[in-house]
Predict the 3D structure of the following.
Amino acid sequence: MLLNTSRNFLVSENENIEEAKVIVLGVPFDSTETTLPGQRLAPLEIRKALLSLELNELLDEVYDAGDVVVVHGSVKKTMERLEDVLNDIWKRNNRAVLLVLGGEHTVTYGVVKFLATKFNELQLVFMDAHGDAYDEYMGLKLCHATVLKRIDELGNVKIATVGIREELEELSNLKNLVSIDDLNREKPTYVSIDVDVLDPSLMPGVSDPVPIGLKVENVINYIKRFDFLVGVDVVELNPILENNISPRTAAWIMREIMMKVRM
């Protein structure tokens, strides 16, 4: 079984995937984290925090698919399982916006790689405090610190970064990097939000905090720039470090995405 559906509690009993406008998918994987693991716990904690917010009727159009049953210790096998799950979701509903809950940032590679086979002109808005563009990191070609480099190598994804404050030099080696102002708001766009893009005072629950980050409204305004969202992920939240403000902030961003999709 590739999905753990015991955590898909964001949906009413009458909802089904074919009618959803937003599909939530958790990927609780953190095996390449090199500072402090714990990101695997984030999908559940973000869901809990989301339910504590005033959602009104937003969840009526949301289908929670549950969590991918990852293979801890194996990026390759986890990416294969993620691809299989995404294929199944796509067959049942290819119009909904994917809302993916990590997990570490490596999760983004699997989702973008899949979507790049479905959309010819896919754009990626990569929000992060770090470049994540190393060719190799601690002996790994695919990990949380190389994910943007691997995405760039796909060749057909236009990439814009937001909020990067460390590892800037590696970005110069990317071939498909553009300014966010060069992206087309009407083309298919995927937004990846590593929550350490936020200032640590607003998002303390991250393993690699970097000072002088974005505000929540900055992140939301970037998302609102794009009319054709095909997916958004929220990654790198570590509830072990802080499990009050951080999940609620991530959930607030999720709610804003749901409201945008509903419009």
Summary: The CA atoms of residues 129 and 164 lie 4 Å apart. The first strand starts at residue 3 and ends at 4. The radius of gyration is 17 Å. The mean pLDDT is 94.
